[in-house]
Amino acid sequence: MKKEWPIWEVFIRSKNGLEHRHVGSLHAADATMAIENARDVYTRRQEGVSIWVVESKDITASQPENKGELFEPAADKVYRHPTFYELPDELKHM
Amino acid sequence: MSNIDQLEQAFQARIDAGENIEPKDWMPEKYRKTHIRQISQHAHSEIVGMLPEGNWITRAPSLRRKVALLAKVQDEAGHGLYLYSAAETLGITRDELFEQLNSGKAKYSSIFNYPTLSWADIGAIGWLVDGAAIINQVMLTRTSYGPYARAMVRICKEESFHQRQGYEIMLALCEGTEAQKQMAQDALNRWWWPSLMMFGPPDAVSTHTEQSMKWKIKRKTNDELRQQFVDITVPQADILGISIPDPDLKWNEERGHYDFGEIDWEEFWQVVKGHGPCNKERLAARNAAWDEGAWVREAALAYADKQTVTS
Questions:
Q1: What is the mean pLDDT of chain B?
Q2: Residue B67 burial (10 A CB sphere; 0-12, 13-18, 19+)
Q3: Please, what is the average pLDDT of chain A?
Q4: Which of A39, B85, B128, B164 is the 20 to 30 Å CA partner of B263?
Q5: Do the strands A50-55 and A7-13 form a parallel or antiparallel pair, or are they unpaired?
Q6: CA nearest A88 in B: which residue?
């Protein structure tokens, strides 16, 4: 039986202080191999100081068709932004 | 030199070079413990901080004020969650953190042990309490522990409206009737000194400051931050046309800063030790929320377990 290696999503921290960011994916037989492959595929030019890998199947993603109900409610909440509040020009440091 | 001394020296060298420390890096046990204490206190302050303001949501004087206050309190819940997550990267669980808060073992900012007696208090809290918190938090965006610094960046960005909504409330009251202006003055009178206490004890007696500066957990001392707050806030009170309740407050040309009166540290320590006006009420509210929410936590887990079995 032919069995394909699973897909892993790769996250790289470019330097301490910054978060890990998604850079892409790759195939590997297990987590250790995924880290090694990620090192070779994504950090050949010192792009990172730390790698996270997670199997793609373990990621739950929101559905594009749910975009409206998930994100539209934030659109009319202008009062969550500082510019909504009217303050005098001479006011400093706020 | 022992192995641990070498590690500590290398660690300090990294800090001195301006590097951030990340969860899987080696760190002295005291650095880890100090962070758990500080980050969780900060998280607890966000969570308990919802209570005095939540008190006024149903009685906000207009829809505009109500949605703004709701949004602010909602942010505070979110900020508590960012901070709890940052603390959990250091090897403590969420349940342990809640237990420390609910049992009274952990501290939170003393300011939230004062009552919100009038609508003007909501203005004063946004202006003064958030103003003081922002000064502290802007400094913490450059703190040495990566997850804490990143949480702070996010929090500072989101909070920029909190202080403005508070000041707008104060401004409306100060431009209103004599009674409304008096209400704003009364709120300033009651919140001014507790706001100054938010920066913690004076440098001379602060037990944590020296080590915290060395590890770049803090980058400014309590007294430096307090002075910065006073210098920024006095002109803002002038614009409102209300007076800061401190007869010793005056501009010192030579120092380039405002001089201000002696803080009542006895009051500060009393509140820290649990004898403030609302300590008991705040803890009771948190414990009730935890106990009364138990069935929800259990039901959600039971449902999740059932899905795993059937799938």
A1: 96
A2: middle
A3: 95
A4: B164
A5: antiparallel
A6: B239
Q: Taking Cα atoms as reference points, which of B34, B47, B130, B32 lies closest to residue B83?
A: B47
Token code pair at residue B50: 């919802």
Kindly provide the ipTM of the predicted complex, given to two decimals. Answer: 0.88
Does the pLDDT at position B26 exceed 90? yes
- Is there a contact between A94 and B165 if contact means CB atoms under 8 Å apart? no
Does the beta-carbon distance from A94 to B167 stay under 8 Å?
yes
Residues of A in contact with B24 (CB under 8 A): 50
What average pLDDT score do residues B13-28 get? 97
- Per-residue pLDDT, averaged over A28-51, amounts to 96
B 131-150: CB under 8 A from A: 131, 146, 149-150
Contact between B67 and A79 using a beta-carbon 8 Å cutoff:
yes
pLDDT band at A1 (very low <50, low <70, confident <90, very high): low
Contact B161 A84 (CB under 8 A): yes
Task: Please state, in angstroms and rounded to a whole number, the distance separating the CA atoms of residues B39 and B35.
Answer: 6
Q: Which residues of A touch B238 (CB under 8 A)?
A: none
Is B149–A17 a contact, with Cβ atoms under 8 angstroms apart?
Answer: yes
Q: Is the pLDDT of residue B300 over 70?
A: yes
Alpha helices in chain B (DSSP H): 3-16, 29-48, 50-54, 63-88, 94-102, 120-124, 130-140, 146-174, 178-197, 209-214, 222-240, 265-270, 279-292, 294-310
